[in-house]
Amino acid sequence: MGSRLKLFLPLILFAIMAVFLFRGLSLDPQAMPSALIDQPLPEFTLPVLGEDRLLKRDELVGEVALLNVWATWCSSCRVEHPYLLQIAASGVPVYGINYKDDDAAAGRWLAELGNPYRANIADREGSLGLDLGVYGAPETYLVDARGVVRYRHVGVVDERVWQTILQPLYQQLNAQGSGG
User: Where residue 1 falls among pLDDT bands split at 50, 70, 90?
Assistant: First the structure.
């Protein structure tokens, strides 16, 4: 009986691996958890893209805002960009985190496509991205008026994502005043 079991062992192992693979593929990649949910935005002092000044975490506190991680090397960011322009034009504060990118290329991108950002943090080395737990670009964080991260969206923000997820949360946080 032992030798017959050895014949079926590869098939059994394959079946077990297939179950794990199927479970992994069925997970929603947009629903990646973040250790920062309900935690303060990490402290940072980083340069503002295209300006001769530094921006600190405390300058983002005081209103509900979106923090959008983007880069010129990110093709999905180009898809997302026109919708970010619409969101910003509607009065929603949007701050950019230009992630591991070239400042000159980022400046050209914004000059060509428009700039939805109130300020753009030049995260050249990815230090803020690391503190946020960024997997890649684009990612968008909803931060309340106290500077607490309330939601993280991995992937493109489009009309569906804005209307069904981010906008209702944004409005709820604004209605709460202090964000919590």
Answer: low
Beta bridge partners of 97: 69, 121
The identity of residue 144, as a single letter, is D
Name the phi and psi angles at 37, rounded to 5. -60, 130
Q: What is the CATH number of the domain that holds 93?
A: 3.40.30.10
Total tally of structural domains belonging to the chain? 1
Backbone φ, ψ for residue 35 (5° rounding): -70, -15
Q: Which two tokens stand for residue 3?
A: 């030798």
pLDDT for position 177? 73
pTM equals 0.80
Beta bridge partners of 67: 95, 141
Which residue spans within the chain are E strands per DSSP? 39-40, 45-47, 54-56, 65-70, 94-99, 120-123, 139-143, 148-154
Structural domain of 164: 32-175
User: What per-residue confidence (pLDDT) applies to 8?
Assistant: 66
| Residue 157 domain flag | yes
- Residue 101 confidence (pLDDT) above 70: yes
121: tokens are 């943090």
